[in-house]
Amino acid sequence: MEKIIDTHVHTWDLKQLRLPWLDTEEYLAQTFTEADYQKDVASDYFTITDALYVEVDCAPNDREKENDWIIDQCKSATSIFKSAVISGDLAIDQFREYIEKYRSNISGVRQVLHVPERERGFCLQPQFIENVRYLGEIGLTFDLCMRNEELSDGYELAKACPNTHIILNHMGNPNMEMLSQPLTDEKRHYRENWFKDLKKLSDLPNVYCKISGVMETDKANFEDFSEEINQVMTLFGEDRILYASNFPVIDLGGGLNKWTNFLLTLTADRSKEFRGKLFSENARSIYLKQK
Question: For an engineered disulfide with 262, which of 43, 222, 247, 255 has Cβ 3.0 to 4.6 Å away?
Answer without folding.
Answer: 222
